[in-house]
Amino acid sequence: xxxxxxxxxxxxxxxxxxxxxxxxxxxxxxxxxxxxxxxxxxxxxxxxxxxxxxxxxxxxxxxxxxxxxxxxxxxxxxxxxxxxxxxxxxxxxxxxxxxxxxxxxxxxxxxxxxxxxxxxxxxxxxxxxxxxxxxxxxxxxxxxxxxxxxxxxxxxxxxx
Length: 160
Hints:
Elements lengths: L1 H5 L8 E3 L7 E3 L4 H14 L2 E3 L3 E3 L1 H10 L12 H4 L9 H7 L2 H10 L4 H17 L18 H8 L2
Antiparallel strand pairs: 1-2, 3-4
Helix pairs in contact: 2-5, 6-7
């Protein structure tokens, strides 16, 4: 925290100028697990308006879960228990990640074929999560590599 304060980064101004390219910024994200839980809780409690005035909320998730209620599941991690969290369950990062993960993006594209915007929301969240949750270089998911290890893939994918 001391280094971040020394760079004058705050909640109001969460970035610094990139020392290598002053036209770009370096943004700081604190407490990533907490941000993930907040996003999930907001989605379940109030919903999130996407572009085209499209709302993604608990009802959309319920439709997805209900559509996958057959014996052969296309999205086995997508269950009612991860969309009905309360009490201390709201503090579990794993449940939030399961709800907002790439399998939900895939299944929303299959189930809600008219809504690419919902698919893209979940897909972008998955990419965002991969960038901030890297451990080792991953061949299948280049965004899960530390920034710089797959720099070409990262810049191409996110137009950096």
